[in-house]
Structure formats: structure tokens, C-alpha cells
Design a protein that fits this description.
With about 80 residues, the chain is an all-alpha fold. It has one domain (about 1-10, about 20-30, about 50-75). It has helices at about 5-10, 15-35, 50-60, 65-75. The longest helix has 22 residues, at about 15-35. The radius of gyration is 14 Å and the shape is elongated. It starts with 5 loop residues before the first helix and ends with a helix. About 10% of the residues are buried.
Length: about 80
């Protein structure tokens, strides 16, 4: 099990709550994309759990932050 450095991940967002929401949203996107490809002949199962993949993206700074900002302006 990887222990993610929470302080480093929080530099990208305003709060832990926002980080959790972003990771959850990204995990749902990963799951949805994997399910859509399931009927394809070239489909391969995920190698990691979607939440782990989303956390790795967050740690690497690859979460889609601009999507979150666009949604905030619509509300």
C-alpha cells in the first residue's frame, strides 16, 4: 500500500474535500471508460483499482483541475 504525501497533494487544491471529490470523479471516469471498452475485442481489464489510478494521477499533478474550475463557474 502506498502512503501518499497529503501535504504535497494539497498544494494543488484548496482543501482535502476538493481533493477527495476530484479523485472520486476521476475514478468514476476511469471506470466508465473501462466499461465502454469492455465490448471491444481489444479490451483489457484494468491493472489497478480506479481509485488507485486516480490517486496516482493526483500525486503526479495530472488531475483535470480546469474541469473543476469550469463547473464552479457554472454553479
Amino acid at each position: 500500500m502506498i502512503l501518499y504525501p497529503m501535504n504535497e497533494m494539497l498544494t494543488q487544491v484548496k482543501s482535502r474535500y476538493e481533493l477527495v471529490n476530484l479523485v472520486a470523479r476521476r475514478a468514476r471516469q476511469i471506470t466508465s471508460a473501462a466499461e465502454k471498452k469492455e465490448g471491444d475485442e481489444s479490451w483489457e481489464p484494468l491493472t489497478e483499482k480506479p481509485v488507485t489510478m486516480a490517486l496516482n494521477e493526483a500525486w503526479a499533478g495530472k488531475l483535470p483541475m480546469e474541469d473543476q474550475k469550469a463547473e464552479e463557474t457554472q454553479d
